[in-house]
Amino acid sequence: MTSPNPYQPQPEDKFSFGLWTVGHRGRDPFGDFVRPGLPPNDLVSLLAEAGAWGVNLHDNDLVPIDATPVERDSMVCSFKKACEANGIVVPMATVSLFFHPVFRDGAFTANDPEVRAYALQKTMRAMDIGAQLGARIFVLWGGREGVETDACRSAGEAVKRLREAVNYLCQYNLDRGYGMKFALEAKPNEPRADIYMPTTGSYLGFIPTLDHPEMVGVNPEMAHEHMAGLNFMHAVAQAWEAGKLFHIDLNDQMPGRYDQDLRFGSVNLKATFWLVKFLEDVHYDGPRHFDAHAYRTEDYEGVKDFARGCMRTYLILKEKACRWNHDGEIQAMLAEISGNGRAPTIGTYSRDGAARLLRRLFDKDRILEKRLPYERLDQLTVDLLLGVR
Ligand code: GCO
Ligand code: MN
Ligand code: MN
Questions:
Q1: What is the Cβ-side half-sphere exposure of residue 128, based on CA atoms within 13 angstroms?
Q2: Percent of the chain, pLDDT > 70?
């Protein structure tokens, strides 16, 4: 008898994939499709076979942009049945505001008011599809909301247009009673040369300026922060701390390159470890969505390998995080370096307290005697990750 797989995904792991991820056919700017197209319902079966919990979709991953209402209804109904039959949920829906040439100058920020209106119409219709499928999270990724030349519009005006659009959509959500939360996804560039709201931090600054900030959070993506040369886990931590981590896009990416969307954990294992550890330590309870796709060399068997790999790596790193948290030597070092109980705490501001702090003498040489053995701590982490600890 074979032993059960300890890294078998479970529904409570909430692993999800986009239709556009496992359905990615390997086309890139230089080369054509390498895999045949699979209908959405077959992609749902593929995900079920791989062990996923959820599937996410853009409106046009399921319903072609010019479908009639009757065609739309029958496609959504049939997809819903396929999900139910496969035990797959639809936690998140989104809208393509980047593929059709009409969005060549952006969607909500485009200069043409008719394009802005069409973008709102398309998004409301995508929300209708999402609501029908049970999605409670709606992602907005403004891939075309940017510029090649700043001569074309004021960047400040673009922010105002974006705010108006999100406010409008929040109102629609309320009006329809959908109970959705919006998750805004940042990216620094690609497809536009420069995209407005280049980082998760930008959106965290934007959200409090909205009419319904409580309805809007972020969808940070690992590859996107890495493209900007940033520490993804730090962005996630800030979003979490602000109560704004509504969704997350997991994948991998070499900094400084085009958007690679590689299998989770396939490039930056250590950064991936710190991320998983963070999510597990804070008991993040949302979907763990893999926004990545298989190598262009793969067929659909390889796509399953890719999907299984994303989830397996997450679960292995989750186990490593648990070991790290229970490692006696690591924990003793953490207790030692935490600095708790050494100096009087500053406390909240008071005039007397500030006066005492202003008078206090600091013995910097004594402070410097305290060792900070981060080299050893990091090596223990590396040993643990490499499986020799
Ligand atoms: C990308 C983005 C997209 C979005 C998706 C959801 O770089 O292409 O990450 O995959 O996540 O469009 O809106
Ligand atoms: Mn991406
Ligand atoms: Mn994404």
A1: 13
A2: 98
Please give the structure tokens belonging to residue 145. 């909301």
Pick the catalytic residue: 58, 224, 247, 293? Answer: 58
pTM (global) more than 0.85: yes
Give the containing element (helix H, strand E) for 94: strand 92-94
Q: Which amino acid is at 363?
A: D
Ligand nearest to the CA of 56: 1
Q: What is the DSSP string of 181-247?
A: EEEEE--SSSSSSEESS-SHHHHHHHGGGSS-GGGEEE--BHHHHHHTT--HHHHHHHHHHTT-B--
What are the Cα distances from residue 337, in Å, to 102, 262, 325?
Answer: 56, 36, 15
- Residue 31: band (very low, low, confident or very high) from pLDDT cuts 50, 70, 90: very high
Q: Whose CA is nearest to atom 8 of ligand 1?
A: 143
Domain-by-domain residue ranges, the chain? 11-325, 328-386
Active site residue 247: no
pLDDT tens across 171-184, in order? 999 999 999 999 99
Which CATH class name applies to 11-325?
alpha beta
Which of 352, 331, 343, 348 lies closest to 370, judged by CA? 343
Query: 311: which 2 tokens?
Result: 């989830």
Catalytic residue, chosen from 24, 59, 61, 226, is: 61
Determine if ligand 1 sits within 6 Å of the CB of residue 158: no
Return the closest-CA partner of residue 97 out of 32, 191, 180, 17: 191
Residue whose Cα lies nearest atom 13 of ligand 1: it is: 141
Q: Phi and psi (nearest 5°) for 372?
A: -120, 85
**Closest of 237, 238, 289, 300 to residue 261, by C-alpha:** 289
327 in active site: no
Query: Are β-strands 288-290 and 54-58 bridged in parallel, bridged antiparallel, or unpaired?
Result: unpaired
Q: How far is the CA of 177 from the centre of ligand 2 (A)?
A: 30
